[in-house]
Design brief:
The protein has 2 domains: 215 residues, HUPs (Rossmann fold, 3-Layer(aba) Sandwich); 82 residues, Tyrosyl-Transfer RNA Synthetase (Orthogonal Bundle), CATH 1.10.240. 53% of the residues lie in helices and 7% in strands. The chain has 13 helices and 5 strands. The strands form 2 sheets. A 3-stranded parallel sheet has the order 1-2-3. The chain has a two-stranded parallel ribbon with strand order 4-5. The two termini are 38 Å apart. Bound molecules: tryptophan (TRP). The site of tryptophan has 15 residues, from strand 1, helix 7 and strand 4.
Length: 337
């Protein structure tokens, strides 16, 4: 155990989780939950789709919790929280907003890209979406986290959080540790189409809950080296999503090296490469599917995990807010204050 060190990290409730979440985050979280006191947050304030798909967001909160349990995150040692059910998130966001110059949000490259995406879909950006990085800073600072495992694209938010912590500590009182970001083994998994990051909205995912048959089919149709027409043509391994997935999910390194070597020479067919990949992915997903099926039929466990996590999350959040109130002097009515 990293003595007394806390982690906060989170995901948006956009639906059931996929291999990109696994390689970029969950795999890391599984290891970290044994070393740190972990707060895992379902960021239900951070979605832009409320306006048109309220039900989907609500269902997704359960889907995410189910997938977390299915991969083996444990509510006994970690805390599963729903952002909106810990209202201190909103309160701390309000206070932090006073210490963040508008320009810092306007320049945030991740936020800019996401807002451009929303607008490209002919929707307008809600004010709450524009300020979500401040809420994210509050998420991290509330449990006074030391470490924040995230995808690469989240690093600007962590940088902003550190800046906010420094400003607060300097101006008032040392309340917040300066949290460090930690990027996973596969910072950004390409989709099965090879074109973009794996993402539900693009429709290029392999989901953790996909059946064996679905995985086989998705892998069979995966984008591969477009310059290679026959098994005897020399192929490209570099930048080929099929081999990126082999690297990410096939634990048999000797097999992967052999396939690569033969692919480059033109001595292996796509069918063999893809069959072996599908097998590796199915081996990874099989125990996850089994646990998912169990929790699907025991939804009381999912609910209990969230109840416990939210209540533990609130306990540390209240403690932090008390420190914040004292530091800011907004404890007007406190006895002896
Ligand atoms: N914005 C993160 C994402 O899209 C999710 C998230 C919300 C988060 N709150 C967080 C990540 C706090 C780390 C810490 O992936």
């Amino acid at each position: 155990m990293a003595e007394g060190k806390r982690i906060l990290t989170g995901m948006r409730p956009t639906g059931s989780l996929h291999l990109g979440h696994y390689a970029g985050a969950l795999e890391n979280w599984l290891r970290l939950q044994r070393e740190y006191d972990c707060y895992f947050l379902i960021a239900d304030y951070q979605v832009s789709d409320y306006a048109d798909d309220w039900d989907r967001v609500h269902n997704s909160v359960w889907e995410v919790a189910l997938d977390w349990l299915a991969v083996g995150l444990s509510p006994d040692i970690s805390h599963f929280m729903i952002e909106s059910q810990v209202p201190e998130n909103a309160e701390l966001t309000t206070w932090l907003s006073w210490f963040l110059p508008l320009g810092m949000l306007q320049r945030n490259p991740t936020l800019k890209a996401e807002m451009a995406d929303i607008e490209a879909g002919n929707k307008s950006v809600p004010v709450a979406f524009f300020t979500y990085p401040v809420m994210q800073a509050a998420n991290i600072l509330l449990p006074r986290a030391h470490l924040v495992p995230v995808g690469e694209d989240q690093l600007p938010h962590i940088e902003m959080t550190r800046e906010l912590a420094r400003r607060f500590n300097r101006q008032f009182k040392e309340v917040f540790p300066e949290p460090e970001g930690l990027v996973g083994r596969v910072p950004r998994l390409v989709g099965t189409d090879g074109q973009a990051k794996m993402s539900k909205s693009v429709g290029n995912t392999i989901d953790l809950k996909d059946s064996k048959a679905v995985v086989n089919e998705k892998v069979r149709r995966m984008y591969t080296d477009p310059t290679r027409l026959r098994a005897i043509d020399p192929g490209h391994v570099e930048g080929n999503p099929v081999f990126m997935y082999h690297d990410a999910f096939n634990p048999d390194k000797a097999e992967v090296d052999d396939l690569k070597e033969r692919y480059i020479r033109g001595a292996v067919g796509d069918v063999e490469v893809k069959t072996k990949l599908a097998k590796a992915i199915n081996n990874l997903l099989e125990p996850i599917r089994e646990r998912r099926a169990y929790y699907e039929s025991h939804s009381e466990h999912v609910r209990a995990a969230l109840e416990k996590g939210c209540s533990e999350g609130r306990a540390i959040a209240r403690e932090t807010m008390e420190m914040v109130h004292d530091a800011l002097g907004v404890n007007y009515l406190k006895k002896g204050g």
